[in-house]
Design goal:
By secondary structure, the chain is mostly helical. It has a single domain, classed as 3-Layer(aba) Sandwich (Rossmann fold). It contains seven helices and five strands; from the N terminus they run βααβααβααβαβ. Strand 4, helix 7 and strand 5 form a beta-alpha-beta unit. The chain is globular and about 40 Å long.
Amino acid sequence: MIFDTDVFIWAQRGNEKAAELMQNAPEKYLSILTYMELLQAAQNKTQHKYIKGFVTSFGFNILPLTENIGHRASIYVEEYALSSGIRSGDAIIAATAVENNLTLSSGNAKHFKAIKDLNLKIFKP
């Protein structure tokens, strides 16, 4: 399973359901974009260390941005930006999930529900 940024934020804020969901996933992935978003939100080096430790301790594999992911994400933006408001970051995360045949867990259903080839698991905090 690949996790959207919001699930990480819930877990870091102490949400037990988010932490349990991550802990119980047999395989744990995150997009390089999610990893960058988490680091970007940090306000100091201590928070950077915390994020890196969190990702490592939970055993997450960080999936890189590939040419295929970029191409698929651009198609998603072209196809869904006007009708559903998908933004480039969400398109990259969704494309990463689809290209790696993974289920995406996110609490932001409205960001992803229009993408027909995405296997989406809605997280409810």
